[in-house]
Amino acid sequence: MSKVTVVGAGNVGATCANVLVANNVADEVVLIDIKEGLAEGKTMDIMQTANLLNINTRMTGVTNDYSKTEGSDVVVITSGIPRKPGMTREELIGVNAGIVKSVTDNVLKHSPNAIIICVSNPMDTMTYLIHKTSGLPKNRIIGMGGALDSSRFKYFLSVALNANPNEVDGMVIGGHGDTTMIPLTRYATYRGIPVSELLDKATLDKVAADTMVGGATLTGLLGTSAWYAPGAASAAVVAAVLHDQKRVIPCSALVEGEYGENDICIGVPCLLGRNGIEKIVDVKLNDAEKELFAKSAAAVRNTNGALASSL
Ligand SMILES: NC(=O)C1=CN([C@@H]2O[C@H](COP(=O)(O)OP(=O)(O)OC[C@H]3O[C@@H](n4cnc5c(N)ncnc54)[C@H](O)[C@@H]3O)[C@@H](O)[C@H]2O)C=CC1
Ligand SMILES: O=C([O-])CC(=O)C(=O)O
């Protein structure tokens, strides 16, 4: 019996739950929100696709009743406000820190062995907050950002290459922020061929820049931040953990010397399995990439500094 709780039945949480259920990733999914009736309504709507999509997962929607989340193997935290056009993710810290802290406390009362996937923004800082306040071992706290950013990177590369996105590989590490992401263009490939052999520098620079502001671009177009790819990326991380897939996916992890940094959560390639983050994979960076990583880490550390006054 596998059980996943998704906290926050808004755009990202409901999409994540829908992808989990539509793909029969878990035996049971619980969707929970503070807003009366929202999780129940989204659950009813999703489960009315069961006979259309051959869904066998059981799904429950509840308003703030954590007893229903009892014994979850994985919990995805999406509760909190999203940004509006013109805002940065970092501006959300004041409201979201309190929400993420109280949700984590409630979740762990009923699922003390759960692996937590943090989605709420500013994600690296919210993941760090969970580390600082929950007492959980570092392998059980995963920040979801790099899975999404890498998928966007592959999308923009596929458009530039006029190729199938499934035939493109690439990774984004560093912070999950408009200026802190690091698309690793040097390691990106199309069917094993380095993209630098197929696209000129100006095109590759534009792909990297579009990736970094991918979330801001969609926020401008939609009036609130994106949800289809964020929900699907969160579900992919859940599946990697629940099914012990041993996939390497960039996630925000507590670093203790890896990539030259300490005491922050930041996007690094993580081997994901049933124990959560089973290993941080060491990808060799050149001097320019190392410098970008150090700058990214400094920016994430700076945002973490605002945590104390936000709680
Ligand atoms: N890490 C990532 O890659 C991404 C992160 N995000 C972040 O995810 C968060 C959610 O985004 P959306 O789903 O678009 O927002 P939304 O506004 O559609 O949904 C958020 C939900 O959280 C609920 N909520 C608020 N406080 C709560 C509490 N204490 N307990 C339970 N539920 C509570 C609200 O009622 C609302 O339904 C935002 O902080 C956003 O910035 C969004 C996309 C990608
Ligand atoms: O852009 C935002 O604020 C939401 C998010 O993290 C993303 O879509 O990457």
UniProtKB/TrEMBL annotation:
Residues 148-302 form the Lactate/malate dehydrogenase C-terminal domain. CDD domains: LDH-like_MDH (cd01339). The active site is at residue 176. Residues 3-143 form the Lactate/malate dehydrogenase N-terminal domain. Keywords: NAD, Oxidoreductase, Tricarboxylic acid cycle. Substrate binds at residues 83, 89, 121, 152. Its EC number is 1.1.1.37. It holds the Pfam family Ldh_1_C. It catalyses: (S)-malate + NAD(+) = oxaloacetate + NADH + H(+). NAD(+) binds at residues 8-13, 33, 96, 119-121. Catalyzes the reversible oxidation of malate to oxaloacetate. NCBIfam families: PRK06223.1. Belongs to the LDH/MDH superfamily. MDH type 3 family. This is Malate dehydrogenase.
